[in-house]
Amino acid sequence: MKKLVLVFVLGVFALNVNAQNAEKAKKLLDEVSEKVNNYENIQIEFKYQLNNKESNTKQESKGNVTLEGEKYLLNFLGFTKMFDTKKVYTIIPANEEVTITDLEDDEEGALSPSAMLTFYKNGYTYSWDILQNIRGRKIQYIKLTPTDSESDIKSVLLGIDIKTKHIYNLIETGKNGTNTTLTVNSFKTNQPLSKSLFIFDESKYQDYYIDKND
After folding, report:
1. Helix (H) or strand (E) holding 168
2. Straight-line distance from the first to the last Cα atom of the chain, in angstroms, rounded to the nearest whole number
3. Which CATH class is domain 2-72+111-190?
């Protein structure tokens, strides 16, 4: 009987600790989201790494993205992708091709750059994870687990700089054994941007094949 009582007490204690950790994790994520939303614009340079030991697949690349509200301009893996709040423009110089699509038709289910810094607000449960000292920066990790049991994602570790409340990196573990890491190398805010930055100029691509998907 005493053992049952002890197990019950320990179980209640564990649930209480987990609830407190989840609340603490949500509070930190909310602080990150609030800070991001207060910037007029954000410019990020990042490193992307993909690793799957089973298939012996390794991939590493760098990219950059400029965000202003819902608008974005992404340069990554040899292509440029831009969203002006109405259309998504994908420019592939290697193929001399431009694809123009509506947002809802563009890579359904994919995470858009404009949602990269706030994606965790829906569809995940939170838990407090490890604190690491990375080159003098205190990075607190929050573990996110998808609420959708059919998700291809097993878990996501979101590293947050405690001092700046900026995201340092994101480590995604897939159910297929693929680990994807996105590390922020540079995070600049409220930069002077050209008024034409998010405007697609078709005259620059007269020699390209333009697929408007009308």
Report:
1. strand 167-174
2. 72
3. mainly beta
Task: Please give the distance of CA 67 from its chain centroid, rounded to a whole number.
Answer: 13
Q: How far apart are CA 126 and CA 102, in angstroms?
A: 32
> Tens place of pLDDT for every residue, the chain, 214 residues?
544 443 333 333 333 334 457 888 889 988 998 888 899 999 999 999 999 888 888 999 999 999 998 899 999 999 999 999 999 999 999 999 999 998 766 554 455 676 667 777 778 888 999 999 999 999 999 999 999 988 899 999 999 999 999 999 999 999 988 999 999 999 999 999 999 999 999 999 999 999 987 6
Q: Which two tokens stand for residue 67?
A: 């965000």
Sheet with 137-146, side-by-side order of all strands: 124-134, 137-146, 153-161, 167-174, 179-189, 42-52, 57-68, 71-76, 79-83, 87-92, 97-102, 209-211
Q: Retrieve residue 131's tokens.
A: 């604190």
Angle ∠(86,192,197) on CA atoms, nearest 5: 30
- Residue-range domain boundaries for the chain: 2-72+111-190
CB 113 within 8 A of CB 106: no
